[in-house]
Amino acid sequence: MSLGDQTVKLQELIQQAKAIFEAGRQTKEPADFFKTVKPFADEVDAAADAWEQAALSYLKEHPQKYVHAAQIIQAADNARRVGAHAHFFDTGKAKFIQSADSALYVLESLYHNLEK
Fold first, then answer.
1. Taking the model in full, what pTM does it have?
2. Fold of 3-115
3. Alpha-carbon gap, residue 72 to 53, rounded angstroms
């Protein structure tokens, strides 16, 4: 899978996590940990790990002016955090949204650089 495809996949997973979080806050229904929470968190973790490695390799070969390794590492960490906390609606909304949006910003910035 190309870095561009990995970037899009991780963006979609983060958007899905945001939707899950918002729905959970409204319904207040707890999710089953082993049937729902863990599989989703594992999927996000795997996507974030693969994307992080590919993005760091890309930056070594093609240094960017506005996207740096520290941002890649932080975005992957934020994606993992969002994936893990999406089903827990008692998580602070501002912190959750901020982590998700921060990761999405870096993903979008990298994706635009890939298109050039």
1. 0.93
2. Four Helix Bundle (Hemerythrin (Met), subunit A) (1.20.120)
3. 9
Dihedral over alpha carbons 44, 32, 29, 48 (to 10 degrees): -10
Kindly report the number of other CB atoms within 10 A of residue 35's CB atom.
Answer: 9
pLDDT tens digit at each of 116 positions of the chain: 899 999 999 999 999 999 999 998 888 888 899 999 999 999 999 999 999 999 999 999 998 888 999 999 999 999 999 999 999 877 789 999 999 999 999 999 999 988 77
Render 20-73 in DSSP notation, one character per residue. HHHHHHHH-PPPPIIIIIHHHHHHHHHHHHHHHHHHHHHHHHS--SS--HHHHH
Domain ranges of the chain: 3-115
Helical (H) or strand (E) element with 87: none
| Sequence-ordered list of residues with C-beta below 8 angstroms from that of 55, at least 6 positions apart, any chain | 3, 6, 7, 72, 76, 110
Identity of the amino acid at 66: Y
Q: What is the pLDDT of residue 38?
A: 95
